[in-house]
Amino acid sequence: MVRVPINILVVDDEEDFVEMFSMRLEEMGEIVKGVHSGQECLDILAQADVDVVILDIKMPGMDGIETLREIKRRNPIVEVILLTGHGTTDTAVEGMKLGAFDYLNKPADFRELMEKLEGARKRKAEQEERIRKAESRTLMRKTGNLF
Amino acid sequence: MNNEKAIKLLLVDDEDAFRQALAKRLGRREMDVFQASTGEEALEVLKATPANVVVMDVKMPGMGGLDALSRIRHEHPGTEVILLTGQAAVEDGITGIRSGAFDYLQKPVETENLVNKIRQAFDKGKHRTDLAKEAEMRESLERQMATAERLASLGTLAAGVAHEINNPLAIIAEAAGYMRLLLKKEECATIPFHDQLEKALGKIEKSVGRAKRTTMQLLGFAGQPDAVYREIELDDLVEEVILLVSGQASGMGVTVIKEQNPCPIILWTDPHRLRQVLINLVSNGIAACDRGGRVFIGSAFSEGMAVIHVRDTGHGIPKENMDRIFEPFFTTKPPGQGTGLGLFVSLDIIKRLGGAIQVESKVGQGACFRVSVPRRGKACPEVSNDIDWRDKARELERRDNHGAGAH
Ligand SMILES: Nc1ncnc2c1ncn2[C@@H]1O[C@H](COP(=O)(O)OP(=O)(O)OP(=O)(O)O)[C@@H](O)[C@H]1O
Ligand SMILES: [Mg+2]
After folding, report:
1. Chain B within 8 Å of A88 (Cβ-Cβ)?
2. Is A93 within 8 Å of A68 (Cβ atoms)?
3. B258 vs chain A: nearest CA distance in angstroms?
4. pLDDT tens for each residue of A37-53
5. Which domain holds residue A75?
6. What pLDDT digit, counting tens, does each position of B107-133 carry?
7. How far is the centre of ligand 2, averaged over its atoms, from the C-alpha of B200 (Å)?
8. Domains of chain B (ranges, CATH numbers)
9. Which one of B56, B187, B361, B400 has the minimum C-beta count within 10 Å?
10. Inside any domain, residue A119
11. Atom 31, ligand 1: which residue's CA is nearest?
12. Single pTM value for the model
């Protein structure tokens, strides 16, 4: 069975982390890009196809929460999984309110992460499906009005 | 005569007749008088029965009054001394005052005069001991505050260190995970040292887990600013704890049993932290048991506090360890198996929540930890009405705590 790879964007200011994490995810068969700041993340999103962003909350400059807010404003359909330090549940909850799919503590359990990724991809697919249906419905209504 | 108010007076003089007559007179003035006929004897008597005031002749055979005075001032700083001098011996009196006598009187003494002096000396002595007590209290308070401050700054430092360590730890974990994936590939199955490499990777992963446990405990200790207070039902929390430690329990062949409490207990507290404490305690109980052991967890109400107890049938805590179990890094587990932070962090958290922890244990008969927390925590921030979000946060925190202390 051929599994459709997930398009992932990893955002973390720790370059070594981004590198190793991306290599591991690629080895699992996903398509991965890595960047090191919130701004770079937004730039990539504007031009590339991304299903899930894995986003570190603690970054210098534009932090994870700000980045998340901006992602959701520009492109609400992209799913975001937050990486947090342990004990920052409040920030995680704030992130969830802003529309993040879920969050994980660093260092994260890889199996748990893969589950979350799958979940995020599924939710995105469902959303897209719903939008498609809604669009075709309005299209039909409009055509109905015409004739 | 009110014995408690009586001044305890030691009368020291080598002239028996004079001393006894004076003792009789003073005994009628609400004084508890005992006697000695030499300086040496006076010191003996004081050792057995401390006196408030000593009235002592300067000229005595053997140890004179002045020598006895300096010994008394040294050994009984709460006792005041009045010297009795001969008529022409003002010098002695002055020397006496220099070496700490309250005052001196010349013989022959007038009773009224002496009684007044004794009363004054008594008041001074009392004042002095009060001051000493006050100073002692102040000192112990200052010591406590210094400890609290040290712990607070230690907490900030610990949190910083833990966060700093978590980042490289995440990189190590990802790198090891990546190498493991590579080793699993078909083309790697036959490379030299394949099994040794895999084994080494296993060690790295295990050690990452170990370090991660330490940083997690430290972050719990470090009084995070984001304590979330919520209303919870204690029974739910207990059930979650049992669920979270079930893996550890079944691995060790130990049963964790919830003791029924007929009336539900509703608490306003920080469930995230309280859960971490209970997980630590239950996890310790499990670790103390042999196969077939049991850990009970239950709750009750007592004097406005919710009391949660965690009792086990394990090997118990030896007396000599009792004082140490709450110290940071104290552990009796083999290296790598225990952080020794579980109880230290737990106590810190419970104190922060305004509660206390009590322990009882007999070697061979298990241990019982009692955590009491106020029904309403000290901080009561506004409650969110967003029910859905509270549920979500709860679920998040359940996961968040996965593995904290339980292993
Ligand atoms: N229920 C218990 N029965 C017997 N001994 C206990 C119990 N709870 C704690 N102890 C003793 O107190 C020590 C310190 O406990 P603490 O929870 O602080 O650290 P630890 O359990 O050794 O490490 P960790 O919590 O990381 O596993 C333990 O090593 C053990 O000797
Ligand atoms: Mg422990």
Report:
1. yes
2. no
3. 27
4. 999 999 999 999 999 99
5. 7-146
6. 888 888 999 999 999 988 888 888 888
7. 27
8. 4-109 (3.40.50.2300), 151-222 (1.10.287), 230-406 (3.30.565.10)
9. B187
10. yes
11. B332
12. 0.55
